[in-house]
Amino acid sequence: MDNSSGVGVLDKAALVLSALESGPATLAGLVGATGLARPTAHRLAVALEHHRMVARDMQGRFILGPRLAELAAAAGEDRLLATAGPVLTHLRDVTGESAQLYRRQGDMRICVAAAERLSGLRDTVPVGSTLTMKAGSSAQILMAWEEPERLHRGLQGARFTATALSGVRRRGWAQSIGEREPGVASVSAPVRGPSNRVVAAVSVSGPIERLTRHPGRMHAQAVIDAATRLSEALRRS
């Protein structure tokens, strides 16, 4: 067997997964693609299905399972966090404001990385903080490119409107002035994964006194540049 690891059962399982990479397959199709005996191909496919690495489509054919996407997302998150530190530090230094990276989790968003302003008045969002998806520029970013049904649901009770999100999509960045917290302004831009899907939002935030009531004029380009660097890092990996 080509590319043998010396662990036969794993090599055969890898053959099954590789065969499904090109699309759904019946058991006969798996046997033909892998060269495995029919009982072996069936036993491995069912075992992989148990671990959610293989699933079935509506016709009962074998397809790649959801666990693979979950593992890929976790690997992408690791790469994102590995790159985020220096990018956020540079963004903080360029803007003079605290910088954050947010990811959506259900109906909330989580700060997964941050670079705090070193002194003076600042907007501190500790890593691990869970914030609302109903207000704030990063919430706008994480919502703006959602599927229509999820977007409609998310707008219920939100501090921003569908029209505002249309503007976000057109500009490629969002701003908020006292939306999440009185006296705080922020600017955010989208980080995109290899499939161009928005996977995170990069933000700078601080007091309105410094960011003014038009924070995007001051910091949109720096935030977009940081988001682009993170998106490129994800695409490279």
TrEMBL record:
Any idea which UniProt keywords this protein has?
A: DNA-binding, Transcription, Transcription regulation
Domain IclR-ED, by residue range, is 67-236
Q: HTH iclR-type domain spans which residues?
A: 7-66
- SUPFAM superfamilies associated with the record: GAF domain-like, Winged helix' DNA-binding domain
Nucleotide-binding listed as a keyword: no
> Could you tell me the superkingdom of the organism this chain comes from?
Bacteria
Q: Which SMART domains match?
A: HTH_ICLR
Q: What is this protein called?
A: IclR family transcriptional regulator NdgR
Q: Which gene encodes it?
A: ndgR
